[in-house]
Amino acid sequence: MKRAFTHANVLDVLERKILNDCTVLVEDGIITAVGADADTGGAQIVDLGGKYLTPGLFNSHIHMTFVPALDLSLAGGSTVAQTLNALDNLAMHIKSGVTFIRDAGAQGNIGVELRNAARAGKLRMVPDMQVSGKAITMTGGTAWNIIGYEADGEDECRKAARLMIRDGVDWLKLMATGGVLTHGVEPGCTQLSEAELHAAVEEGHKVGIKSMCHAQGNEGIKNAIRAGVDSIEHGFFLDDEAIQMMLDRGTWLCATLTPVHVILENADKGIPEEFVRKARYAYEHHLDSFKRAHAAGVPCALGTDAGCTFNPHDLTYLEMALMVQKCGIDAFEALAMGTINSARLCGVEDSLGSVTVGKKAHLAVFEKNPIQDISATKDCAMTVKNGEILWAK
Predict the structure, then answer these.
(1) What CATH architecture is 2-55+351-392?
(2) For residue 65, which of 34, 106, 126, 250 is within the disulfide window of CB 3.0 to 4.6 Å?
(3) Each residue of 280-336: pLDDT tens digit?
(4) Global confidence as pTM
């Protein structure tokens, strides 16, 4: 099918400019032309009336089965219930302009099964996705009672990685430190050792599977970098040495500024005091770590940790807003982190991440100009995936 999205202000995240009053021509799900003089003959016309068109957004750190709860340790339910949660959450991403997600841990093998169903065309209102299955954590470590697969020692970690690979994951998820939302652990404390992390990372890299690593404390971050992980998740307490290590190795940072922010915004609404205390301690360090890492040139992607406490699956806009408003990041740069940068992290930049001829027509449309006010990305007017309009107001 041929479809023409006309009278669009296209945000070019590669050249960092706005192409005014453009037509984006799509045929069989692929962008075939971008420009004011695109030939629309024979195409179905979708007049965007001056709205702002961006690449479909990425959210590179979510938990598809999580429904925000005051205390995630109490979250549960049957496999069927968790799967229904995931379908609702994935539809919420679509309605907020997100057309690609990377899941950072789900109960059971739900993420793999839903990814497979989506790739087979059995699911419509879902983003494209890469998934990590269960998170490999030490006994009693971060998220052990929610999405964790407990492993101790190099041999157990190696076997755990092999099990996840057998089950069909795209990424391995590893836990190098404590965290905010698990009782009895602290963000700064190390958990899986460098040797344990390396054993799992090595198994993944043998078969071309990358590793993302929950790492908040500085020593745990360094353990993870030395172990060869591909992306650091959160990165609360980065020092200059850790940043240089990331630069030397090309390690990505997915900072997830949103979860700590929303915990503190809702601290008086019944969140366990332990979680609030840890969030307060981490907040300024987290912002500073992200600012310094980005300024140094560490490659950065966008993720929100969606599904965690007071953190629903439609806050991708908030992550960009925090980058701009709290960290002084340029709006185009924030949008790039939520599109082409995240596409590079996930290895799909050749087909997604920018409004470019030859790429898949994954698009998001917003009422107002996100470069004037990045919070305009809160108001998604239309989401297009493979040239099909999945959501429109």
Answers:
(1) Roll (2.30)
(2) 106
(3) 999 999 999 999 999 999 999 999 999 999 999 999 999 999 999 999 999 999 999
(4) 0.97
